[in-house]
């Protein structure tokens, strides 16, 4: 009935083999499949479920909103309320527009950047994924700043010729791109912590360097915080790394598990967005009452003091434990985390960009993934995805995961 049996490709277990379990329910740190089997969940619906599944406060908020109707296609007070929370949390955001997916958020941010600057080119980084808008679906680069080649059939090369791609963490490559195309680069879009090639943090000075290069060339800096927003810290990676972008894209957590995402930034930029300005962007279900209710309830819970410290400790304990077990089994392994987000590679490290990430041992990852799934631990079914810990993951779940990892590392160690 559905291509590949899934509504999003990564769910089909293409990178790890086997047939994915169909999920039937979820509660707290656990998902339960259609056969009644439960797993400790580190996918968290690819990021949104930071409070844990079926959180009572979120369910109550959604039920109450639904009782008053599911969609009006008109402005509502709840959209203003969540906009105030988002803009108060993110240093770079004075105005925000809600949309229904991360893809819409980044696609719209690029259009605003091009509309505001009157420039055509954009620069992205290899291994960063910003959703499936044509201009952003470019194939793997070649280690230097190159013009994008279509990453998918159906994307005409004309649509990616204006997309420059550079290696992550490589300021020299970005500088050379600016030297060559600087006066026609509308923006640089970056995952300030890369979660789509595992978990790769910016090297010291990388993000500040992008800020400086953009300022010098009159280009906008766009942080794609669809994954990191409200996940690594209350104010996202931009607050952790103290670099202020011109535009920020959000998704996942901000919708609390319902379809909501957003883009926003300085008022001087956002005033160009229709209907206030001429840059067109629209959406039937943008600001949907149920999604706004779920998002608001989620952000209210995250605003509690000590939440990110607790999340960071929990995730840190998981990563520390996995490192120690890998070392016991003499398996080349590198892992890191920030807030409720983590990643690991079967690679001695350091892993600083997509080229490094690609050198990780994919066969070992597949064996490890299978052993963990057999043991009731549900990891992201791809070596190029980040993992997510929720506030519902207790020491009990972390201990169970590390217990499973002991067996899984043994299995991964054997060729
Ligand atoms: P969506 O259109 O899937 O809501 O968001 C696209 C997107 C944009 N930016 C970043 C940094 C993202 O991580 C994503 C989506 N992430 C993927 C997994 N890494 C979603 C999972 C999927 O594709 O099914």
Percent of residues in helices: 25-40%
Instruction: Tell me the radius of gyration.
Output: 21 Å
Beta fraction: 15-25%
List the domain count as a whole number. 2
CATH architecture of the largest domain: 3-Layer(aba) Sandwich
The CATH H-level homologous superfamily of the largest domain? Type I PLP-dependent aspartate aminotransferase-like (Major domain)
- The overall pLDDT average reads 96
Q: How would you spell out the order of helices and strands?
A: EEEHHEHEEHEHEHEHEEHHHEEHHEEH
What structural category characterises the helix and strand content? alpha/beta
List of distinct ligands in this structure: ligand KE4
Remind me, CATH topology of the largest domain? Answer: Aspartate Aminotransferase, domain 2
CATH class of the largest domain: Alpha Beta
Notes on the protein architecture:
This protein is α/β, with parallel strands linked by helices and 415 residues long. The protein folds into two domains: 162 residues, Aspartate Aminotransferase, domain 1 (Alpha-Beta Complex), CATH 3.90.1150.10; 247 residues, Aspartate Aminotransferase, domain 2, CATH 3.40.640.10. 36% of the residues lie in helices and 15% in strands. The chain has 13 helices and 15 strands. The strands form three sheets. The chain has an eight-stranded mixed beta sheet, sandwiched between helices. A four-stranded mixed beta sheet has the order 1-2-3-14. The chain has a three-stranded antiparallel beta sheet with strand order 12-13-15, covered by helices on one side. A hairpin with a 2-residue loop joins strand 1 and strand 2. Helix 1 runs antiparallel to helix 9 and helix 2 packs parallel to helix 9. The model has no long low-confidence stretch (mean pLDDT 96). Bound molecules: ligand KE4.
